[in-house]
Amino acid sequence: MARDEVFAARYAPPLLHVDTATPARIYDYLLGGKDNFAVDRQAAAALEQREPHARLIATENRRFLQRVVTYLVAQAGIDQIIDLGSGLPTVDNVHQIAHRHNPDVRVVYVDHDPIVLAHARALLADNPRTTVVAAQASDPAAVLSHPHTCALLDLTRPWALLGLALFHFIPTDPAEVIAGFTAHMPPGSHLALSHACREATTPETAAQVEAIYADTTTPLRLRSRAEIAALFTGFDLLTPGLQPITCWRPHHPPTNPDPVWLHGGLGVLASRG
Ligand SMILES: C[S@@+](CC[C@H](N)C(=O)[O-])C[C@H]1O[C@@H](n2cnc3c(N)ncnc32)[C@H](O)[C@@H]1O
């Protein structure tokens, strides 16, 4: 019996989805992590057949996250962050990046994948400036009124919402979801996101990738560049605006312009009225 099957037979509670791939575990595999099952690796292999740069795209997304969080903390003075769809802990997590610049930054991690939640709780158990919330990212009230969020953050002061490689997993209107969070943001708050862009590939490849994710726990929907840009309504996009993530304030010129599936940006909430 394979190692995964032994694990599943002995320990897996029903919600672990050992027979169905999950986006968190596929992404973990693409990043070189170990918290994935055979079914996730099969889905990742199918993705890599359609998009040979799949691993590089995942790595570049983490680099984008690193640059965004560094800017937020080191330059914009943000000290409260909600990371929606945080994913499995990896080499450089949001609080670790943030704490290099300000050890007082508070981070709320939000996800709905049971393995993500279990690992995040274990990693963060002794850290009083971080917490984990099990919630649907599409439910702003559940996230913002969760006792852990309320205990850690003061939402009357500026804070940052991260939604990297997340909103393409939200089937309902993501603009409405973001508006639900924005309604509770004071001016000076920030929104950062990256999202799979429909124009970045051919219609055939887009359909194939959507078909692969249709067989996972959480289908993926590519959106047009205009739809992604509209997610920043109410925010002033900071330079260089909405870009392929490799072109957003790169530390080095992108070596390969191909893997631009994910477009991302960072905006600051303008004062209302
Ligand atoms: C591709 S990973 C991205 C992880 C991280 N944000 C990053 O950019 O490195 C997407 C994550 O979003 C989570 N996710 C997807 N849909 C979600 C939802 N409706 N509510 C909460 N988390 C969700 C998945 O479980 C997964 O951990």
From TrEMBL:
SUPFAM superfamilies per record: S-adenosyl-L-methionine-dependent methyltransferases
Gene3D superfamilies linked: Vaccinia Virus protein VP39 (3.40.50.150)
Domain of life per record: Bacteria
Metal-binding as UniProt keyword: no
Assigned keywords, A-Z: Methyltransferase, Transferase
Biological process according to GO: methylation
Gene Ontology MF annotations: methyltransferase activity
Pfam families per UniProt: Methyltransf_19
Protein name: SAM-dependent methyltransferase
